């Protein structure tokens, strides 16, 4: 089989052989492809393929994200190794991508993925396609959107909501952070209560359980603005007990509640590539469809309120523990006279290769500009360990990692990136 490379809504991909048990969409001449920089797969129509080299510069100008550049680097490296033996193609845009879907389970990807998912394809699936926000083809909801919290994650989310045509009212504890978004077309809310009362769906994305509770129960808080039918979506990473408490108090006022913490970083938030985990009121989840498409690559509905918080803490527990292990490996390599760069080069050639690769390079360069705050990943580890205690389930790896992050915080690394845990090993 000839291997080809392609562009897809700002992504590079190549044709690969599909799994033997995966059916090809009927009546369509298409290739099965794998996206560079991800593990995503999809069926692409043959007529949508364009010469890669012809459109390369055009696509690089359009797509400025770090992830896209990493994909370009990966495909260029692939082509060098191929030594001109592979035929190269590209795809600029596609309006009918057939994506395979996972077997039915309690984790259900959002069903209305713009117009790039063919509902009549009859195909079975491996993974959902990448971000739809880049395509600009989202039909924004006519509901009025409120957003509380313009931190690392919230800022990127609001920016993408505005870009995709949503009507957004913003509020932030530090009011100056709202200025940029007002210039981009957002409206200013004076208090959380005012935002909740004037908007149909209000999102909150703050630092942790205390901030989330204060936003709802505090002076001029969300609770004062909740009326029957108003929707409140908690996007902060908090413990399930906080979520259940917020859900109960919002619904007691006739409001509708959804939790939707996000997996990702500041860069992924800016790129509209977050993964959204939702639980609670399914009808609110459906009402948020265009919002989730604007801010993320995919979203999952996990059932009753509290489940998304549990899943998010588990994911961040693994991510935090992994980063601490990488830091430990880097410093052990240095202590035993091994090249840290060679260690990372080897690591990124094997099964451990991931979106962490660019972060590894930043560590060696001493660049700890926050993409995900160290203090927040330590908070998530602490909450995950507590959740394990409640379930009588051991979490010794997370507990060990948590101690390293606590040491990093003691070394004044709280407001640096989570990768600054590296410094806990060299001081």
UniProtKB/TrEMBL annotation:
InterPro entries: 6-PGluconate_DH-like_C_sf (IPR008927), 6PGD_dom2 (IPR013328), 6PGDH_NADP-bd (IPR006115), GLYR1_PWWP (IPR035501), HIBADH-like_NADP-bd (IPR029154), HIBADH-related_NP60_sf (IPR051265), NAD(P)-bd_dom_sf (IPR036291), PWWP_dom (IPR000313). Residues 17-77 form the PWWP domain. It is found in: Chromosome. This is Cytokine-like nuclear factor N-PAC. The keyword Membrane does not apply. Residues 144-303 form the 6-phosphogluconate dehydrogenase NADP-binding domain. GO terms for biological process: transcription elongation-coupled chromatin remodeling. Signal peptide: none annotated. Its main location: nucleus. Keywords: Chromosome. It comes from Cyclopterus lumpus. It comes from the Eukaryota.
